[in-house]
Amino acid sequence: MGTPAPARSRAISLEVNGEAVEYEVPARRLLVHFIRDDLGLTGTHVGCDTGNCGACTVHVDGVSVKSCMLLAVQADGTRIATVEGLAADGELTALQRSFNEHHALQCGYCTPGMLMSATALLEQNPHPNEDEVRVALQGNICRCTGYVNIVEAVVAVGEGTS
Amino acid sequence: MSTTTTTTPTVTEQQSTPTLEKGYIGQSIPRREDKRLVQGLGTFFDDMRRHGMGYVHFVRSPYGHAKIVSIDVSKALELDGVYGTITGDEVAIHTEPFFEMSVEPGANIKDYALAVGRVRHTGEPVAAVCAATRELARDAADLVEVEYDPLPVLVDAEESLKDETVLHDDAGSNVVWSGVFDWGDIDQALADADHVVKIERLHFHRFSSTPLECAGALVEYDKGTAEWTLHCNHQMPGVGAIWMAPALRTGIDKLRFVTQDIGGGFGNKICLHPQYVVLCLLARKLGRPVQWTEWRTDQHTANAHGNERTFLDIEVGVMADGTMTGFKVRALDDCGAFPRYEPLGCIIWAQVTPGLYGWRNIRVDFTQVCTNKSPVSPNRGYSRMQHLWLTERIADIVATELGIDPVEFRKKNYVKTEQMPYETPNGCVYDSGDYAAALDIALDLIDSGSIEDRRKEAAARGKLLGFGIGSTLDSGTNNFGQSTLLNPDLQFSGNNEAASVKLDIFGEVVVTLGTVPQGQGHETTAAQVVADILGCSPEQVNVRRGHDTWFNSHAGFSGTYASQFAFTGLGAVKGAAELVRAEMVQLAAAVLQAPEEAIELADGFARIKDGPEEAALPFMALGAIVNANNAFLPPDFNPTLNHRYVCRPYFGMVDTEKKTGQLTLTYATQIHAAVVEIDPETGVVDVVDYAAVDDCGIRINPQIVEGQVHGATTHALGAALSEEFVYDEEGTLLTSNFYDYHVPHALDMPPLKTGSMESPSPVAPLGAKGMGEGGGGGIHCVCAAIQDALGAAGKAIVYTSCNPPHRVWSMLQDPEATRANVSVVSK
Ligand code: FES
Ligand code: FES
User: The domain spanning residue B143 has which CATH number?
Assistant: First the structure.
């Protein structure tokens, strides 16, 4: 008897931004492509093919994760939050407002990933200093802003000045 | 700890001509684009889906240079879910080669959308596959069998010049373009000079801005009308269409370019026409929408690199008092496998021929060659950055070799503010600026008086501290007539940009831009300008996102490039808003039975100045009258409240004999200063203090301007210290992703201090100069600072623009090797 052919797709069920989702996904599909192409949540971006840029950052069970580095099937049974879930009730979060006030984005392509990484930081450390913010964001590349205003925006939220 | 200090120590108001009172203009209004972008609700091209859409993947060459013996797509086509393929042979049948801008030999190069018969760089697309999913398209591309016959590879411009191997048989030479630019009398200047400083070789390296969003498009073909719609991120669709339409044997109007949000461009999204033509052919052939999203590795390998340039046999004439009188140089530019936007880079540098300096005698012998590397494309600071780096390297090398303080040397040689507007030896006009004053601001920010103490303190810790200045000009608003200095037969001159403004039925002000923003905040700044002209708040102004060639709000040179939005983009917005304003005043005067002079537009009303409260019409009333309730208007009065305006800057003609003319209109100034510490054990360079001073005339939105300064500086720091496209001798790119090609991360960035001044442009419609490309200052000042630091360890000469640790370490080990490059002949 030979080895049975590997499954080419699998049913997964998970929670995305508070909603239950059931899906039959190709076994090889990246989580980021599942989020973007299958769920249509296109706020999560793709900026590289080596896991360096962080544009694809989402929260999986409360932890910030690069969704291009996971397969969709690995997210079975998890709780996922994407950028679209931040202002779910229509109100921007303090961090989103701070990004606007501090001009922390230009093209906005890195922004969803930055927001997800910074949101995770602020949940663990509500008053980070500048160095802590830089450490937390080191996995997120921005090619437009030089990070100056991004760092300021995050620090300002912790200081309650935004 | 990083801190940002924004200082505005001096504001010089020179030749002030702005025609508008500052209202919303000049305010750091938070951007309106942000609301959608912070919620992940932006629309980038890859966010769009169409029913039945196919995903495209390119089959790419693994060789730097090879003959294509055969291509077999049959196995790919057998795969379930594969919609179709296309190869170079089909492209050669269905399209024309792209139009070349050079004279011979470059003019004879045949550049098709896919490789035909031969590949000339690693990653060159040889075929494309379209399939139902991204994954399948990739799998199928792997099944395409291509047989290659490798050819000798050229990865060095000087080797290329020998023509022992020729990349393009039709051209018969690797030279794309060559010519001599000779202004003043350099031979006499060198003969009269008290010192002649000679530098054998300097090298400006290959890198690019690598926008975070890669290139791509979703293309639909309408069989009934034979029209293509490209939902894309091309940043210069006007020119893209000029390339694509003749290649596709169709009219310009058959190509509709639509952009929405774009994830950065920096010039790297100007040369997308080859890939887009393939998508157009596939959409037509397969009768379905097709989409292609470039992978990061493909972008690095085969999309857009910045021009690499070697400067040879430099000679600089200097008088005993330290005045530089002129220089000569042989410049050898490497444009990669195909010229594409080139040879424009062979002239664009001439916008800043003397840099910031007063030398009047300059000879540049310029040659551009092809090599087996990725084609180049404009890259932030395009071609001027390379040349300005040369002028700054010259300034520092001359100053150090003659024992003059680089700050004093610069101040002595800078063009003076009293000389503005200043005509350069090649007929360009520096419109305004005060370089010495900007330098003083930078010196203050960096506390230059304390450098010697800091140097000692660092030495005590075993570190080499150095301080350097980088001066740049960000020349904006191109005169496309400069292309005729390369090829007199080209039919390009001037420049233009369009915009339209209308007052709609419910009083909404609607603005449509011809520009193609990629993060520069055009929606916000255009609303500020329109609000000031029409007398309303920016919130009342709806600036449509992106660019759409169907809106008729574009012109032949539409796009966002060459630092010109503040001039042509906002000039067009201003022009259109003023036309609408004039009609609003006329209409209100007619309705309120008052003379036009008595009407003012303010707070969203057209009203009689100092008149009774009821003598006021809300914008809604004006919009409704014209659009829906117009029967009472007299027959000879036909306001539309809907105007398109084309901003056409005036340049005059260039002189193709003398190679002179006004090549660009505005010159923003940047003076950067850096303090670095080098670890002599490892060669690691740490930027410990940094200041960037920008003078771009009137700033429409200072916060946005400062953001551009941060971004451009970051690109420069990355380029100066780590970002480099490195090839091995077989033409394989060794830095093809963000692992190997290290761009600055949040932890890499030094503290950035910014300062500003405002020298309004006397020629720009709003006194505002284009800006955003002046980051080259960062490369110049880091090179200068490294050289200064190495002064205490053998006095190496910094000879290349990229100085990662291994290169600095070798300069520390063998400083003489670099010093052999430089000599001084004194009389
Ligand atoms: S796309 Fe996931 S790290 Fe770049
Ligand atoms: S804002 Fe463009 S990449 Fe960060």
Answer: 3.90.1170.50
Across B488-497, B555-564, B666-675, B745-754, least confident range: B555-564
A54 lines ligand 1 (CB under 6 A): yes
Domain that holds residue B99: 45-151+214-262+270-302
Domain boundary among B616, B647, B678: B647
pLDDT one-digit tens code per residue, B463-517? 999 999 999 999 999 899 999 999 999 999 999 999 999 999 999 999 999 899 9
Are residue B793 and residue B662 in the same domain, yes or no? yes
pLDDT of residue B21: 56
What is the complex's ipTM, to 2 decimals? Answer: 0.97
What pLDDT does B11 receive? 34
What is the CA(A115)–ligand 2 centre distance, in A? 12
**CA of A23 vs chain B CAs: smallest distance (Å):** 16
What is the pLDDT, as a whole number, of residue B20?
Answer: 52
Does the residue B2 lie in any domain? no
Q: What's the gap in Å between A35 CA and the centre of ligand 1?
A: 13
Spatial CB neighbours of B224, under 8 Å, sequence gap ≥ 6: none
- Pick the ligand that lies closest to the CA of residue B261: 2
Of the candidates B593, B615, B647, which is a domain's last residue? B647
Backbone angles phi, psi at B403, to 5 degrees: 70, 30
pTM, whole model, 2 decimals?
Answer: 0.95
User: Domain locations in chain A?
Assistant: 9-85, 94-159
**Does residue B439 sit in helix, strand or coil?**
helix
Contact B196, B132 (CB under 8 A): no
CA angle in degrees (0–180, nearest 5) for A75-A81-A82: 105
Is B323 part of the contact surface with chain A (CB cutoff 8 Å)? no
Contacts of B710 in chain A (CB under 8 A): 145-146, 148-149
pLDDT in tens, B601-651: 999 999 999 989 888 999 999 999 999 999 989 999 999 999 999 999 998
Pairwise CA distance, residues B115 & B449, whole Å: 58
Tell me the pairing of strands A19-26 and B195-204: unpaired
* Cβ <8 Å between A50 and B739: yes
Residue B498: C-alpha distances to residues B551, B569, B643, B649 (Å): 11, 7, 10, 12
Q: Is the CB of A60 under 6 A from ligand 1?
A: no
Query: What would the pLDDT profile of B370-405 be if each residue is shown by its tens digit?
Result: 999 999 999 999 999 999 999 999 999 999 999 999
Candidate from A48, A100, A110 with most ligand 2 atoms within 8 A of CB, to mutate:
A110
Q: Is A48 in the pocket of ligand 1 (CB under 6 A)?
A: yes
| Smallest-distance ligand from the CA of A65 | 1
Spatial separation of the C-alpha atoms in residues B823 and B237, rounded to whole Å: 48
Which positions in chain A touch B214 (Cβ < 8 Å)?
47
Q: The domain A94-159 belongs to what CATH superfamily?
A: [2Fe-2S]-binding domain (1.10.150.120)
pLDDT value for B22: 58
Is residue B43 exposed (0-12), middle (13-18) or buried (19+ Cβ within 10 Å)?
middle
**pLDDT value, residue B317:** 98
Q: Would you state the pLDDT for residue B775? A: 72
- In this structure, is residue B40 part of a structural domain? no
Same-domain check for residues B204 and B221: no
Pocket of ligand 2 (CB under 6 A): A 105-111, 142-145; B 212, 264, 519
Of the candidates A49, A86, A148, the beta carbon closest to that of B297 is on: A49
Say whether A106 and B707 touch across the interface (CB within 8 A).
yes
Q: A9-85 adopts what CATH topology? A: Ubiquitin-like (UB roll) (3.10.20)
